[in-house]
Amino acid sequence: MAASRSSALRTVIWKELIDIGRDRRALALMILIPLVGLPLMALIASGLSSAQVVTVYFAILDNKSYPIVNWLSSQLRQDALQQGLNLNITISSAPPSGVYDVEVIVPYGFYENLSKLDGVAVMIVRSMVGNYASQEVTSLISSIVSQLSGQIVVERVEELAKLANVSIVPSQLLNPIQLSSGYYLPSGAAATQQQVQLSFSVRLLEFSLFFVVNPAIVLVTDSFLGEKERKTLEVLLSSPIPKESLVLGKLTSAAVMGFIIALADSGGVIIYFLMLAGYGLRLTPTLLMLNLVDAAVLVFMTSALVTPIILRSPSIRAAQASSYAVMMVALGIYFSALFVNVQSLPTFLKVLLLAIPFTEASTALTSFVLGQAALTTVYIAIMLGFSAAFTIAAFKALDVEKLITSR
């Protein structure tokens, strides 16, 4: 009996894989579009950003301030180049004749006020509303002016020290308290630099889990609803294949193909962020391997979760709407992972989130990075438990008559 069930299961899985692979063009597009399209989007975004020219106008109403403005503009070019920004800087003593992305006005008396021991020099900076690049340039100007202001303060302190005939170190006078910072793990042990870097990078992997969930839901939904559309469901249900083998075969085949597509989806997302964020992100082989295991369990768990919902939906539209709702829940969980640490939430909120199956996939990765390997194992085990429970629920949810008569 067990041998016949195993043979029936293999038959269903093979049939489903053939059905999924029959439309090779669609399958290839599902794999290649995220793997190629997302990095291409990153290239386009970075290319458009570097091609964009930000116009900056320095209106100097105080002629004595030219040396300061020349230094400021030179420093601004260097910093903007590091940020991938292309600037067109104009320095003039006349008010701007047109509209610029950023306007810097140096009013009359700027240099004189700057030269006084207690003088306050005012520089006016205005940026174009709705222009993200101009906001970046404004931030750079603010940072450079802050550095310049710090240098001038040091010079004023040195001058005061000479007048008072005392010997001091300006930096120690201005900064009497030094802050030494570091990181530690939930265990209390000091965190390594690699763990600090991975703690930021793992949020990217957590967000990419949504792109693992999506193909699993789409494929398992199509696995059942596609049979109805092709008018083959009645023949399949009337075959001698045990109903448990039929459900498990469809679920498994959808999970297998979903995992293959998920690799392309999550891989494309990771490449996309790496290309845009640069080399500040760090991913180790061990973390990537754990991510693969996590994704594989997540794909099967998602397929098992959606299956009883589809089987009990009164209509095809209801099944599609329910699947979409599940995707939105997953998106909410993994988008929140970018900003929220589940472990630091109040107990009732943490329990509530962990009751949502998708949360464990995210917390498993975070726990590993924080040195809690045992907790990572627990979370993956919980996902496997969810998978088993949902699979059993799928077996019980199969009602041949309702499935055939639903529209």
Question: Could you explain the architecture of this structure?
Answer:
With 407 residues, this protein is mainly alpha-helical. It folds into two domains: 52-165, D-Maltodextrin-Binding Protein, domain 2 (3-Layer(aba) Sandwich), CATH 3.40.190; 194-405, no CATH class. The chain contains 16 helices and four strands. Strands 2-1-3-4 form a four-stranded mixed sheet. Strand 1, helix 3 (66-82) and strand 2 (86-92) form a beta-alpha-beta unit. The longest helix is centred in the middle third of the chain and has 35 residues, at 243-277. The chain starts with a helix and ends with a helix. The model has no long low-confidence stretch (mean pLDDT 82).
Which key features would you list for this structure?
407 residues; mainly alpha; D-Maltodextrin-Binding Protein, domain 2; 2 domains; 4-stranded mixed sheet; 70% helix; elongated
Task: Give a quick rundown of the structure.
The chain is mainly α and 407 residues long. It is 70% helix and 6% strand.
Strand order of the largest sheet: 2-1-3-4
Q: Over all CA atoms, what is the radius of gyration?
A: 30 Å
Low confidence ranges = none
Helix percent band:
over 70%
Measured between the Cα atoms of the first and last residue, the distance is 35 Å
Please, how many domains? 2
Order of helices and strands: HHEHEEHEHHHHHHHHHHHH
Strand content: 5-15%
- How would you characterize the largest beta sheet? 4 strands, mixed
Q: How large is the count of helical segments?
A: 16
The assigned structural class equals mainly alpha
* Number of beta strands: 4
Shape estimate: elongated
